[in-house]
Amino acid sequence: MVTDEIYKKEYDVIIVGGGATGAGTARDCAMRGLSVLLVERNDYSTGATGRNHGLMHSGARYAVTDSESATECISENMILRRIARHCVEETDGLFITLPEDDLQYQRTFVDACQRAGIRADIIDPDEARRIEPSVNPELIGAVRIPDASIDPFRLTMANLLDARIHGAETLNYHEVEGVIVNQGRVEGVKLFSKLDGRHVEVRGHVVVNACGIWGQRIAQLAGVKLNLFPARGALLIFGHRVNKMVINRCRKPANADILVPDDTVCVIGTTSDRIPIETVDDMRVTREEVDVLLHEGVKLAPSLATTRVIRAYAGVRPLVASDDDPSGRSISRGIVCLDHAKRDGLEGFITITGGKMMTYRLMGEITTNAVCAKLGNNEPCRTAELPLPGSEPDAPKQGDLTKRYSFGERAAIGRHGSLAARIEKDNDIDNALVCECEGVTVGEIKFAVHQLHVHNLVNLRRRTRVGMGTCQGKLCSCRAASLLGELNHDVKRAQEDLAAFLDERWKGMRPVAWGDTLREAQLTAAIYEGLCGLDTAVNMEGKEDVQ
Amino acid sequence: MQICNLSENNFEQCTKCSICTTVCPVAAVTTDYPGPKQAGPDGERYRLKDPAYYDKMLKLCLNCKRCEVACPSGVHIADIIQKARMQASAGHRAKLRDTVLANTDLVGTMANLVAPIANFTVGLKPTKLVMDSVMAIDKHRTFPAYSRQKFTTWYKRNAAKQQDAFANHVSYFHGCYVNFNFPKLGQDLVKLMNAVGYGVHLLDKEQCCGVALIANGLYKQAKRQAKTNAASIRKSVDIDHRTVLTTSSSCTFNLRDEYPAVLDVDTTDVRDNIMLATRFIYRLVDEREIKLVFKQDYKRRMAYHTACHMQRMGWQLYSIELLRMIPGLDLQLLEQDCCGISGTYGFKKENYENSQAIGSILFKHIADAQVEAVTTDCETCKWQIEMSTGLPVENPISVLADALDVEATRAANGLK
Question: Which CATH number fits domain B8-89: 3.40.50.300, 1.10.10.10, 1.10.1060.10, 3.40.140.10?
């Protein structure tokens, strides 16, 4: 369907926000037969969804302090292992006690896990060293729990794909610039398309605000007030995996006490700082944050001290203050679903916030229940039973990779599950690697461009991991830009896109630009600026446009 | 913290500059091989994620180490690939063909007993066809002929007694090729060293260095033999104070560098005392410890080929400069190209085509050089060049021994 027709339709529900929660809600609503439009101001999973650990919590982390979150996590954890197999790696996790920690806490922790229904096995430190050789050898206690690793980009995309299969429309690069309110009733949204600069209005019976911390602004546009408190967390990505299992500290949650193996890398995090809401778009990582992360990270796995850090990033969690406490002292990390008809007398407007990426499906279910109640829809929720596209029961598992597949094919199966079958691989060109670090082929790029809503290189990176490896786009970005230019018949745009992409990569490298990461960046700069003159080419063209 | 990135084999110091791929002889002739960067540091990240990401095309690696020579970041790319192959092969049994090719000493011992028959038989066309079809050893290949007498037998009968009389002493790691196929090279070394006042001794116990075992996936056996050799070398160096000399660049590189890097058999303590004979002799000449006197009437035109492992050690200069001391030798230096054989690699049917394609550049350079013979420090390069160009190939030690005026040299070094 062309975009004009998407704008003209009237929807049962318009979901604002293309993170995991929005995507999960869109899937649920569409599966229950509602007509759905999802709009996202940037790319899908740009916000907190794509800026966390990629940890599929067992819930153990919350067991002592927040039993409700713990119970939600373990239940969702088990569901995601079934429905999102291709996004999940079943690594299991350890909670380790170091000599400076209180070993008594281990008992409290295990008891709390058992109360929440989380399997928690105390294992011998020797056993922990054996099953996870990277762990700090000085540990004095270890508990094994069912943590796992999950890819939030793929998870979000799989939900969006399934929503579309069930008839939903999804638009990225469409920013909500107004909420249409008529006689105490929300009737739609005013959109600005960043793709072609148009301003349009789209009508819907219910509008769902699923924008994480940015939901504050959407609520304002609708004339209601939310008490969201942004909590910022910074993380570091290391160039390769040092650990096979998730490693946590067995103590009260603190800074940098989780190390997660994510795909080809591992990630340490997070810090946790309350920040003013005005600064939520400033994602720069500070030197102090890097220092804390490294200092604490080596306590989990000492080899992190000498492993190359390729990138730093930060995300913002939306914490919600209860309505009778605007100061924010009694703050919740739990799921908050607000029906503004009951709360503010504004009909047709629902805010879903709080929660975690991990509980996106449950948040979608709660929200869809609220939407269905308004629309008189009695269909049951089936998102916990039916697998996401890519994770059908017959889809190959990562562990099934046999000699039949080439390296690029295996990497693609690891990323897309059964959807990898749609990738063309019948000739040498389609099998040629674009991104050598991550094993992305020309065929996979074409698949992503044609089927996964790719407008630019950053989109492509989130769909395929192009440019996420140790070279951070040095070798692949020009190849990928060239392919995009060819597929979109727009060389100039591809050139600007290339410059912007390399710039975006450098932003994440800058806080950790020392040693080999700095050498890598210098070589990249030498190639693209020194050798190819990319900066001057793009800037000069910009100036000519002005003239 | 974070002063440098110290991962195994420096793999994360790779900046993806891809220079290694541009010098890889295999990547130059086939698209089946992903090249050293992909096979090494890039693939390693995936293999750390899950060993199932091992790419079977890694078997196409020659282990020529040219990638490591080219790498500006000091990444041990070929070692990463060797280790990955080793891990992937764990639990698999090697093929009969690979076991036969790899066990150079066992097969050598058997063949020596029946050398004339063995040489005759493996040279027959029907035998070659059977080996080609049954064992996948390419029919174009000719096995190096086996000698009737082992080097060690010759040594014990003819040389051992005289060695203690010398003032200085070295040990000799002869390797399988000298022992089973070409004792003359060992005899040449003894002749040369004796002429300059050095006694040559065998190691207490020498087994095949294992370079072919590593290449063919017989790691356990390679490790066992490495331990035996390491112990013998250690005794020679630490107790007898004898430097261990070699005449094969591949054995040398294996003993010094692959033992610790690939087999986890640490030889770093004695590494500096294991060296190619040309390096040892060159240094003695350079430090005026010994003198070499060559025949007046010697006249030859030869081309020097740098073996890959020779290039990896950076030692070709020693051989070249020694050869240049021979007044009657017109020495042509060839470009440093791989000959394509890489030990047993080129013998395998599936590699024959690649092997010859890789070597074709070298063969052309040799033809252009218009020489009567080629000299190189590696025996498998010798086979390949002889098979592919028809020219005879000699080890520099043999060339030196041939050109040496023994009596004059003995006199110049104060020997009676």
Answer: 1.10.1060.10
Q: Which residue type occupies B69?
A: V
**What are the backbone angles phi and psi of residue B376, rounded to the nearest 5°?**
-155, 160
Q: In terms of CA atoms, which chain A residue is nearest residue B8?
A: A307
Please work out, in degrees rounded to the nearest 5, the angle formed at the alpha carbon of residue B415 by the alpha carbons of B411 and B416.
Answer: 90
Query: What is the full DSSP assignment across B229-262?
Result: HHHHHHIIIIIS--EEEES-HHHHHIIIIIHHHH
Q: Are B267 and B166 in contact (CB under 8 A)?
A: no
User: For the domain bounded by B300-403, which CATH number is listed?
Assistant: 3.40.50
- Tens digits of per-residue pLDDT, B119-133? 888 778 888 877 788
The number of beta carbons lying within 10 Å of the beta carbon of residue A274 is: 11
Q: What average pLDDT score do residues A465-476 get?
A: 94
* Mean pLDDT in residue range B309-321: 96
Please give the structure tokens belonging to residue A308.
């190359």
In angstroms, the CA B274 to CA B252 distance is 7
Query: Between A and B, how many residue pairs show a Cβ–Cβ distance under 8 A?
Result: 105
Cβ-defined contact of A437 to B16 (cutoff 8 Å): yes
Q: Residue A540 pLDDT > 60, yes or no?
A: no
Structural tokens at position B397: 């030690």
Q: How close is the nearest chain A Cα to the Cα of B329, in Å? A: 46
Nearest to B4 among A306, A410, A523 (CB): A306
Pick among 3.40.50.300, 3.50.50.60, 3.40.1700.10, 3.40.50.620: CATH of A3-48+153-226+322-375: 3.50.50.60
Question: Which residue ranges make up each domain of chain B?
Answer: 8-89, 300-403
Lowest-confidence region among A370-379, B26-35, B106-115, B355-364? B106-115
Cα B83 off chain centre by:
19
Distances B172 to B29, B178, B316 between C-alpha atoms, Å: 38, 11, 20
Backbone angles phi, psi at A20, to 5 degrees: -60, -40
Is it the case that residue A265 has pLDDT exceeding 60?
yes
For residue B56, which residues of chain A lie inside 8 Å, CB to CB? 403
Give me the residues paired with residue A171 across strands.
A39
For tokens 């007398």, name the residue: A345
A205-242 per-position pLDDT tens digit: 999 999 999 999 999 999 999 989 999 999 999 999 99
Residue B140's pLDDT band (cuts 50, 70, 90): confident
Query: Which CA distances in Å does B319 have to A24, B209, B280?
Result: 70, 22, 10
Q: Enumerate the domain spans of chain A.
A: 3-48+153-226+322-375, 88-149+229-317, 398-546
- What is the reported pTM? 0.91
Give yes or no for a cis peptide into B344 (omega within 30° of 0): no
Q: Under CATH, which number does the domain A88-149+229-317 receive?
A: 3.30.9.10
Mean per-residue pLDDT over chain A, rounded: 92
- Helix runs in B13-150, H state only: 19-23, 25-29, 36-37, 43-49, 66-70, 77-89, 96-102, 104-113, 115-123, 125-130
Query: What's the CA gap between B216 and B63, in Å, rounded?
Result: 11
Report residue B208 as tokens: 């095949």
Instruction: Check whether B42 has a pLDDT greater than 60.
Output: yes
Q: Write out chain A residues lying below 8 Å of B51, CB-based.
A: none
What number is the ipTM of this complex? 0.90
Nearest Cα residue in chain A from B73? A516
Q: What is the pLDDT of residue B99?
A: 83
d(CA B32, CA B53): 16
Inform me whether the pLDDT recorded for B115 exceeds 50: yes
pLDDT tops 70 at residue A330: no
* A247 touches A96 (CB < 8 A): yes
**Tokens found for residue A405:** 């597949």
